[in-house]
What does this fold into?
Amino acid sequence: MEFFDKVGKSALGSRLRLMTAVVTDDAAKIYELYGVDFVPKWFPVFYTLTEEREITITEIANEIGHSQPSVSKIIQEMIAAGLIEESAKTEDKRKNNVVLTEKGILISKKIKQQLEDIDVAIEGIIAESKHNLWAALEEWEFLLEQKSLIKRVSEQKKKRESKDVKIAEYKAEYQEAFRTLNVEWISTYFEMEEADYKALDNPEDYILKKGGKILVALYENEPVGVCALIKMNNSEYDFEMAKMAVSPKAQGKSIGWLLGKAIAEKAKELGAKKIYLESNTILKPAINLYYKLGFEKVFGLETPYKRCNIQMELVL
Amino acid sequence: MEFFDKVGKSALGSRLRLMTAVVTDDAAKIYELYGVDFVPKWFPVFYTLTEEREITITEIANEIGHSQPSVSKIIQEMIAAGLIEESAKTEDKRKNNVVLTEKGILISKKIKQQLEDIDVAIEGIIAESKHNLWAALEEWEFLLEQKSLIKRVSEQKKKRESKDVKIAEYKAEYQEAFRTLNVEWISTYFEMEEADYKALDNPEDYILKKGGKILVALYENEPVGVCALIKMNNSEYDFEMAKMAVSPKAQGKSIGWLLGKAIAEKAKELGAKKIYLESNTILKPAINLYYKLGFEKVFGLETPYKRCNIQMELVL
DNA sequence: TACATTTGTATAACTAGTTATATAATTAAT
DNA sequence: ATTAATTATATAACTAGTTATACAAATGTA
It folds into this structure.
């Protein structure tokens, strides 16, 4: 199909669907050719029953990768066709153990030669082709099991978008964003405290003039994340990392990670050896991020914030 | 899936179906991830509309390999969603030309980045794998277009079964089969004639004792095909190939071909240079077979059979 | 020019699966 | 010994396609 060359790989689902239709349409004709009264969709269930003497519906479903209702319906059709029957000898009355009937066993023998012919025909196509479809499907099953397509796409999205995120130095025009973004999350989870207002309303005086720094993450030139480095005096630490906030609208772009990395870098530039932070364990994604950035738990320092129940440090 | 290793290639349809389900399930989630109000199945139609400014439903269906009703339904859904609209400016009133609306154009722009991300993600999987699924699908589309799966399987069936066909010399026990098989086809298409009864009721006297031969095709030890070589005197031909009959139950096993080849071989053994046959053009498969065996049309010989309207010879 | 055939679309009914949910039987937990 | 949770199955309702068919418009032909 020329169409798929134009569209690109994102039409993989459509391409697979068409090939599936082509193959399964012929499957029905093949049973006809061999004069077997059999519906192609029965095959995986039927095959399982020729292997396992007795097996429940749910077990079959797991074995062949169908949903349980799908197998349930197929079983009913095959019972109606006289190929299988319920086998009463089970203690668990919920279970519906099924086995092949005489007729079923007969058909399984009749079908055997047919399956071999199909196998040879498909092997023939594989031999004719450069790229092995069967092996490719097997690999894809494995690779998508490891990491699903949605996961892979979402990672790619993050990667691309984080490239468009710029980390900039604080300017007066970002004061409103600095305040809003922080008020947003603080008041969602906690109460705003005195110390918060001071720093957020007047970062110039309370952070920058005291030797601190503020970085802003810009996405499409809009400030979507902020983080501050606050000078600590009379302490083993040089700076506290604080007031980190990312707009919920800009989630999934690794903005927290980029800000954290940039802040650590900035601290190093300023000659710092160790930085410190305070947080609360109910902020699980934040705590995770801190660990990823290399922070480790420390204990016993004083803090003006009620909401603090975890303290961490990063050795630069 | 372990299952597929056990079952073998004949479960290719099932394997494709499962992979299709896995991929298309994630496709829906991907649109959600990008916040686009869009149904995956719309995509091929939508894509075509972004390429072609104006296009009819049937043209779209051909382009993307769907049935026309499928596209018809998708178009209706997309019109309801406000993505496309009917474009009145067509003379042919049967045609329903459709174009993207403003909203549709907007979404096509929004979707662009998403498609690129999917493309990158899928390219990633292809890069991770040894067997290229995308390329394999392309090859299979081509190869199955050239010769369908049912055709390939049916050829394999024929090939295998013809191996189980044995060509044997005539024995008295085959007289009944020789008669029945011939009466069957002759009386279906024509009337039995005097010359038929003579030869069929008493092949010993009328064929063998006069220097002719009869060969019998056996499948599972049952006679399923017969053919005679009748000595011709006072003629440029050494033998006439006649009374060829194959049981309809044993069709598709190349029995006619095997008998014809064996008869020609036998004639050569007996020192013949040219053999002759008479037939009727309404027996198309038979005439085809004779051509395949190397016979060519000749004209103007006398014949005792009313049903004869074509005469052929084979130079050995 | 009138009639038959072809073309373009829509609709109905089907297929092979799915998810959601109800029910009964069994197992686990207090 | 109850009660709660889990398991096995069946059923209903949905999805993304299909084929068969009806109907109107356009085209071809005697």
